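Quick one from the shared queue. A colleague (R.T.) flagged Polyamine export protein as missing a structural entry in our internal table.

Convert sequence to structure tokens.
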Amino acid sequence: MSLSQSLFVIGLLIAASAFFSMAEISLAAARRLRLRQMADEGDARADRVMRMQEQPGDYFTVVQVGQNAVAILGGIVGEGALSPHFSTLFGWWLTEDNAQRVGFLASFLVITSLFILFADLFPKRLGMAEPERLVVRLAKPMAWCMALLRPVVWFYSRGADALFRVLGLSSLRDDRITSDDILAMMEAGARAGVLAAREQQVITNVFELDTRTVSSAMSPRDRIAYFLRDEPDSVIRLRIAAEPFSTYPVCEGDIDHVVGYVDAKDLFQRVLNNQPISLADDSLVRKVLIVPDRLTLSEVLEQFRQVHEDFAVIVNEYSLVVGVVTLNDVMSTVMGDLVSPLDEEQIVRRDENSWLIDGVTPISDVLRALSLDELPHGEEYETLAGFLMVMLRRVPRRTDSVSWGGYKFEVLDVDSYRIDQVMVSRLSQSVAPDNTNTPGTIV
């Protein structure tokens, strides 16, 4: 063959190798969700690709047979086509034997470089950039190749299947999508600018409903506004004015004996109609939903759905009331400041290295704000106040502090044994404790 014919053949071989490289990477990188969307929009080629993904053995066998055959042919043709010309060129300066050796090496480097660049790197990067668009176009030519090379494909595929069986491995593609997969995609979308940071946080909060307990979203016991059943009309009116809420528990004797709840709308109707308010009236007091404090937020939502309520009283294992929760509390946990932007924030960043955090802030929010993976004894508490109590082994007092993971947690304000405010400061690297080697420093 002449030089021009050899170069033409090498170009065809590079194109064939690029085709197989692009077909391989595009099928592996194609997202099944996107393919399903394309199929639902009427693209029959997407259905064919999904079937190939379910049983990719024959597909990849053709790819490997094609790539290896093309690489061998490229080496043979390239050596025969370019080596004589390089040898002649180097013969001007070298002896004949040395010129042939250097000419062969130069031919090898040129052919290898052409295949690496145009038959491997470029097509694979292109296939990674737009896998779904390319794979649906390449699926039909690959189906022809599989039919043409059926005997060869059968031989090598059966051999590969035998190896999988011997090693006890599965050759089927696992297309199950977990919550971690979705969160990873959301994070990637936020980094790419497709999702806003707040939108990503909302989606993350939705998945946390299965792990966060109801106590992380409740109004605690000391903040509950409630009525005693025998309270007179004047006391009820004064309390409504002083503590305006949408719902009030009704108790018999004390807060731990809840008999129901009253809706503020019903009370306002009586006030507007100049009717006396008496909680002894059973028509005014509604049956209340009681839930244990170990339920997750998703379980509380399910309870709300089943009983068609949006208010619940939370009790602990001793049947003592620990708080109340509403549907709005749960949704505020999901939506954050998108729902209630005027509410006081539980975590306020003062500067680059310090935060002011409410004691009742859920520990998951604290970890996220401080970029920590975990805090010690995490199964024993759910709030920042609980963390301090566990670490100190007593009820914290003002100026008490705990150092852990490069941060100092200092109690600023305590109100009736309740931790109101905690100052969290980042410690310098020279004094920061190593949370993998020490249980923390308590001051």
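The longest helix spans residues 57-90.
The first strand starts at residue 219 and ends at 220.
Added to the table.
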